[in-house]
Amino acid sequence: MDAQWAKMEPLCLGKKTDRGCSGKDNHLFIEAVLWIARIGSPWRGLPTHSGHWNSVYSHSR
Question: For residues 50 and 4, what is the distance between their CA atoms, to the nearest angstrom?
Answer without folding.
Answer: 19
